[in-house]
User: Fold Septin from Neodiprion lecontei.
Amino acid sequence: MSGDRDYIGFATLPEQVHRKSVKRGFEFTLMVVGETGLGKSTLINSLFLGDLYKDRRIPDALERVEKTTTVEKKTMDIEERGVRLRLTIVDTPGFGDSVNCDDTWKACSAYIDEQFRQYFTDESGLNRKNIQDNRVHCCLYFIPPYGHGLRQMDLEVMRRLHRKVNIVPIIAKADTLTAHEVKKLKERILADIDEHDIQIYQFPDCDSDEDEDFKQQDKELKACTPFAVIGSSTVLEVAGRKVRGRQYPWGVVEVENPKHSDFVKLRTMLISTHMQDLKDVTQDVHYENFRAQCISQISQQAIRERSKLKRDSGPHFEHSISDTDRLLLQKDEEIRRMQDILAQMQEKLKATGQGGGIGMRSRVGSLGNDLDVADADKKRNSIIDV
Ligand SMILES: Nc1nc2c(ncn2[C@@H]2O[C@H](COP(=O)(O)OP(=O)(O)O)[C@@H](O)[C@H]2O)c(=O)[nH]1
Ligand SMILES: [Mg+2]
Assistant:
């Protein structure tokens, strides 16, 4: 009983948050970018479709994979142990020739911006509670296995996108490289990224109180960037096991074999360990950037409109009012001074027995400039003083 009294109840907060999140479900959007033919569509199929539709016959790559010519969005609702995930895959048209990548980055950039804009509009609207989050949380950037590091084109596309989205670089078709070549290519790519100040997604530091297994997994994950992956839409039978792989005359390359590629590490990172962090960085860094730009644009627009209004209505409105006021005040002051002088003159004249101030009235009525008035004052004072 005494135990009950000590118990306030907030220890259930994590469960409450958990229940609420589970009820609401999760949303995640992944974009794939890179040259045509690098296996983007195949990898996406390998990453998700096989798991999503376990009972479905997986058709041959040739049957399934078609050339992507526009930004294509596929959404799937997945449920695993009661947790619902709405996964959106954005497949982009790859740059077809090795010279011009403008169309690709423009299409990707426009898509990302559009999702941010939609979110920004929804967030400023009335129904903020049920906003659908379609922002792109991660971009897998496919690097060809046959180059020596990043090409000018890769750098260009990455530079256009790195401030908008979490870029995760990937070495495509890693089955075409030996283990040594993979190692060398990874080093070259990381050096190029560093040299050209490209901001790829940074894995967060592992908390010191995490268990050793997790720390080890985290270390391995960080060490294998950029992930060297293999994709296949074909299921083969190897020693009685059904595996997704690629059949070569000398053997089978297994997509999910950690010795053959980093495919499983990539999938674990994307789905099991870093999905929430990718979403957090999208919200806190990339979206915040976009939002700041939006707000600054809106305020600049307001300033421009205000000055335009002022300019347009200037001669008739604000300016004329303040000018008239100023002028009126000036004139009032002048009149008051003149009246004072007049009163003094009249008193002195009275005292000397001469008649009322001739000509002063006309002077006051004509309201000459300040210099004239000052000169006149001096003269008058000297006359009076004499
Ligand atoms: N060697 C090898 N070939 C692949 C791999 N992934 C896909 N391919 C093949 O590359 C070709 C182009 O793949 P596709 O997914 O259409 O590329 P996309 O244009 O980037 O979407 C297809 O014939 C695939 O079978 C891979 O990991 N290794
Ligand atoms: Mg494709």
Remarks:
- Residues 40-41, 68, 91 surround magnesium ion (ligand 2) (CB under 6 Å).
- Residues 275-313 form the longest helix (39 residues).
- Confidence is low (pLDDT under 50) at residues 51-64, 354-386.
- The beta strands are 26-34, 72-80, 83-91, 138-143, 167-171, 227-228, 235-238, 241-248, 251-254.
